[in-house]
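Example for tutorial group B:
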């Protein structure tokens, strides 16, 4: 692309970096789309420059080799094959030493994406109507009521025996009751809404069991009202959602060659030995291999490896796939592998363009124009960024046998008395 102007024409080195720039077609006549073409039009129309794109043959940002030389876009910029980069690249320490950077355009973080997990049945749904604290309270209440009924019942029987000692006992007090057995029966059976064949003896015991019957009615009514939903509520198990979980999963990782993370991964001192990031990179399958982006995305969706990339790039792929298919094929880890990095346009040292570009970029950022252009490129990724399982209206799941395990366990424990 060439933008006509009365001022000298600038040559801009370009390569693909989603969503900031897409480069298709032959190197001598590329088709360039994305965020940066619109931003560059604004900048250079204001400055009065014309510009043309120069495609980097390797399509990579470039990294420094052990002998001190550079590859990719950085090498061509240092060799003066173009005046500046036409896309924003991550500001690393090595690039900072070799080049100048403009004001940052965007802030990026590095994370990982992986095949979207399948919604599963949850056989523990029958315990989920109440939280852990409520279940602890219920257990404590059962034990407390059991102990109270046993003590009151034992005291009642002792009083009855002392009154009838030396004489014939009344007919309703004939026989020796099993205090422990009947206390357990009145406590557990009432809580489970089961019928009790024996009536409590004595007013004090009847008051205790009556209060417990009311409490049990409230608890079981609330439980039953939530039980059905919890039994069929789908469960989602993420393979990983943090760097530590990714390291422990031992899932192979793939990093786009020539990226800042790839450059860092080639170094042995990227992070302390034994750290989560170091263990993740131990399972990388791309540090010494050159594989294209489409291959990496394809195998990530197939679940063959996790793709480590800037969060914006992963979200852009979500936008593209959802726009074409209406489906979400993978998820993005909520935590970051690396902290924030600045994305800036690269310039040679002491380039006069820096003084002209910085004020304009700063104003574009402060007025929200950069954010506006970014959101236009990833608008359809919103649905895929929702919590997994929240797209129930779009993805219906047939019930399987696992959905009924909780019901089978309840029936195995006994049936409720039919309501009258």
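The residue assignment follows.
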């Amino acid at each position: 692309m060439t933008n006509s102007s009365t001022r000298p024409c600038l040559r801009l080195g370009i390569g693909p970096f989603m969503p900031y720039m897409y480069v298709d077609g032959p190197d001598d006549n590329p088709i360039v789309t994305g965020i940066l073409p619109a931003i560059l039009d604004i900048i250079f129309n204001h400055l009065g420059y014309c510009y043309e794109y120069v495609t980097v043959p390797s399509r990579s940002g470039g990294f420094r080799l052990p002998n001190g030389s550079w590859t990719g876009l950085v090498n061509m910029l240092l060799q003066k094959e173009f005046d500046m980069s036409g896309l924003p690249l991550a500001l690393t320490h090595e690039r900072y030493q070799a080049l100048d950077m403009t004001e940052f355009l965007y802030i990026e973080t590095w994370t990982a994406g992986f095949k979207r997990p399948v919604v599963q049945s949850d056989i523990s749904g029958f315990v989920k109507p109440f939280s852990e604290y409520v279940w602890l309270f219920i257990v404590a209440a059962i034990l407390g009521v059991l102990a109270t009924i046993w003590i009151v019942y034992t005291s009642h029987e002792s009083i009855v025996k002392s009154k009838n000692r030396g004489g014939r006992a009344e007919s309703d007090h004939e026989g020796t009751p099993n205090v422990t057995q009947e206390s357990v029966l009145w406590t557990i059976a009432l809580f489970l809404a089961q019928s009790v064949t024996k009536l409590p003896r004595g007013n004090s015991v009847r008051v205790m069991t009556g209060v417990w019957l009311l409490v049990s009615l409230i608890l079981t009514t609330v439980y039953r009202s939530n039980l059905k939903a919890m039994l069929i509520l789908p469960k989602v198990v993420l393979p990983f959602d943090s760097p530590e979980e990714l390291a422990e999963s031992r899932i192979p990782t793939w990093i786009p060659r020539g990226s800042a993370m790839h450059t860092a991964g080639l170094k042995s001192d990227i992070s302390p030995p034994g750290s989560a990031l170091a263990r993740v990179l131990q399972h990388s399958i791309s540090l010494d291999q050159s594989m294209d982006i489409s291959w990496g995305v394809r195998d990530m969706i197939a679940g063959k490896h996790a793709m480590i990339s800037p969060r914006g790039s992963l979200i852009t792929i979500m936008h593209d796939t959802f726009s074409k298919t209406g489906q979400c094929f993978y998820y993005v880890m909520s935590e970051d592998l690396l902290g924030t990095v600045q994305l800036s346009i690269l310039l040679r040292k002491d380039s006069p363009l820096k003084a002209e570009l910085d004020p304009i970029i700063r104003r574009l950022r402060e007025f929200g124009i950069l954010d506006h252009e970014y959101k236009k490129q990833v608008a359809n990724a919103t649905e895929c960024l929702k919590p997994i399982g929240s797209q129930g209206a779009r993805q219906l799941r047939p019930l399987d046998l696992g959905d009924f395990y909780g019901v089978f366990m309840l029936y195995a424990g006994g049936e409720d008395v039919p309501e009258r």
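The longest helix spans residues 132-164. Compare this with the pattern of hydrophobic and polar residues in the output above.
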